[in-house]
Amino acid sequence: MRQRRWLIVLMSPLALWLGLLFLAPLATMVVFTFRAGSFGPEHDVFTLENYRTFFGNPTYSRLLLSSAWISFVASVLSILLAYPVAYYLAFQAGAHRLTLLLVIIVPAWISFLLRVFAWKLILGSGGLLNIVLMAAGLVDEPAPILLYSRSAVIVALVYSYMPFVALPIFVALQRIDRSLIEAASDLGGTGWQTFRDVILPLSMPGVAAAFFLIFIPTLGEYVTPLLLGGTEGLMFGNVIQSQFARALNWPLGSLMSLAVLLFTLALLAVFVRLVRLEDWVQA
Amino acid sequence: MTARAWRSLNLFYVTLAAVFLYVPLFLLIVFSFNDGATLAFPLSGFTLKWYRELWDTPELLRAAWNSVLLGAVSSVVATVIGAMAAVGLMRFRFAGRNLLIMAAMLPLVVPSVVLGVTMLMGFAQINLPLSLWTVGMGHVVINLPVVILIVMARLSGLDANLEEAAMDLGATYLGAQWRVTLPLTLPALFAAFLTSFTTSFDEFALTFFLVGSEPTLPTYLYSQLRFPTRLPIVVAMASVVIVGSFLTVVFTEWLRRRGETQQTNRVDSLAGDPAIDGRRPGPTMRPNAPALGRGSTPRGGK
To answer: Quick one: how far is CA A31 from the chain centroid?
Structure first.
């Protein structure tokens, strides 16, 4: 039958590519969690030592949780900051809507590395914030403000992801049937009541999608903390990265990767349960 | 508070948000013209020397060229594989279809650092040396889900009967794809290619683990961030990238919207099924033109 034959032709490149370059490496990682070393004879020795190291040292799981906390705070903050922007775009911007939307999302397309780096020009000593505060007489000397801290990481994460967060909220607000809002005000609802009882609940799929869009990628983030976090702002991604870039302990690094992956998937499973899958795919 | 006052207040807020989004980029551009060796205020005069030095740094230009090639090749591969898969997923009903969609979307939710280290170990297992090719293979993996989403979105807005009609009129399956589906999805393929290209051009988190001796632009920039004397040149490069990305995005958006209107006109006259049109999902991170159209229709009718 022609149908079956063409289906195989259409799907096999994808299946091969993902199988060989995505699933097989994932399997390699799982195997590596049982290996005694990255190279040489130890590579072929299988052990549970890595699991003992990982679970024996509470620092790792604590760091995973504190990274998740950083991601969570950054996600919530960017949603709170982006919601009014999305609201304005959807309900108040009128003819300028599309232009404004472009204004909001264009920064998201500009080099991530450089956008993070730019925050050094703001937070560093002799940075913009320092100059402004000195001019205002609040600070006396050039000194870094917030730089190399958890707050710096959060600020930069919020900055990097805010455009992505605004978008799904905007789409959700845009989808709301305008007659529902009219009905609410016809029935005597004040602006605030209409927002609280009609608009906000109906925009929740967008908010959930936005949360998902920032929380998941920032969980494994290592670039922002590397540039701005110092020791206090370290995240779990940094420990993984250093196992491969510096310590060359691939087995332990694999186990950490597996941990963050399972953690991510578990959270994802909770999300999917809370929000119907289609909602976020569409957003 | 009146609606009008509320609107002005919110406009003020949106302006602040826009300032927040643009100040860091603006600062990079300002410092690229600053005649001083350190990236700190106060500014010490206007100069173009960083741009001259930029031009005299062959490694940087080489890294930029590497990134262009890498982006072009990996995006073509991702677009072809992803588009084929999207046609298969949208036009065929088969067991395991939903599972396959889930699997294809999985790279979206795996942290880049994890993707990077798993592929690094995978390549080490088969003794494949790291190079721009290994980076490219990784970039295809992260771009595939996005391509599939964009192309599936366009296909769901097209009537499958168009292909059927072509085949009823004597076209082979391949002929129908080539002469009906391909032209109709061309704007989406182009958007998918450009989205992949911009992602690939900017990708660092995964690239870092897979790059060999030949740097890409982001890995080169990263290596330079450690040398304070090189920073002004990096900032000049950044300004070029900012302006370049800005123009690319505006151009892509312009193309996409043009494609969208053409598409809608053509398809509406042929199919015009609001149930299908209404469900057309917009790919992630892109302004959703169908949603805009739908939102404005009821108000337009008043």
So the answer is: 28
Return d(Cα B69, Cα B75) in angstroms, integer. 10
Q: Tell me which residue range forms the domain holding A246.
A: 58-282
Q: Cα distance from A268 to chain B (closest Cα, Å)?
A: 8
For residue A205, being part of any structural domain is answered with: yes
- B40 within some domain: no
Q: Is residue A116 part of a domain?
A: yes
In a domain, B11, yes or no: no
Average of pLDDT values for A9-28? 93
CATH code for the domain in which residue B193 is found:
1.10.3720.10
Q: Is residue B293 part of a domain?
A: no
CA B170/CA B147 separation, integer angstroms: 31
Residues B89-115: tens digit of each pLDDT: 988 888 888 888 888 888 988 999 999
Q: What is the pLDDT of residue B264?
A: 56
**Number of domain units in chain B:** 1
Share above pLDDT 70 across residues of chain A, in percent, rounded to a whole number: 95
Contacts with A267 (C-beta within 8 Å, 6 or more apart), sequence order: A215, A216, A219
Q: Could you count the other beta carbons within 10 Å of the beta carbon of residue A188? A: 7
- DSSP code string of B255-285: HHHHHHHHHHHHHHHHT--HHHHHH-PPPTT
Query: Angle, to 10 degrees, between the axis of helix A2-18 and the axis of helix B97-109?
Result: 20
Domains held by chain A: number: 1
Domain presence at residue A148: yes
How far apart are the CA of A56 and the nearest CA of chain B, in angstroms? 22
Q: What does DSSP assign to residue A229?
A: I
The span from the CA of B58 to the CA of B43, in Å, is 28
On chain A, the residues whose CB falls within 8 A of the CB of B284 are: 168, 213, 283
Facing B140 at nearest CB: one of A17, A89, A227: A17
Nearest to B230 by CA among B30, B39, B25: B39
Structure tokens at A2: 């022609």
* Each residue's pLDDT tens digit, B167-217: 888 888 888 888 888 888 888 899 899 889 988 988 999 999 999 889 999
pLDDT (tens digit per residue) in B138-152 = 999 999 999 999 999
Q: What is the pTM assigned to this prediction?
A: 0.82
Task: For residue A128, give the nearest of B27, B100, B245 by CB distance.
Answer: B27
CB contact under 8 A, B205 and A13: no
**Closest in B24, B31, B92 to A7, CB measured:** B92
Distance CA B252, CA B194 (A): 7
A100 belongs to a structural domain: yes
CATH label of the domain that carries residue A138: 1.10.3720.10
- The range of the structural domain enclosing residue B253 comes to 45-288
Task: Quote the CA–CA distance of A83 and A144 in Å, as a whole number.
Answer: 30
| Whether A87 and B3 lie within 8 Å, measured CB to CB | no
- B2 falls within a domain: no
| 8 A C-beta contact, residue B272 and residue A67 | no
Mutate to test the interface with B, among A10, A202, A277 (most CBs of B within 10 A): A10
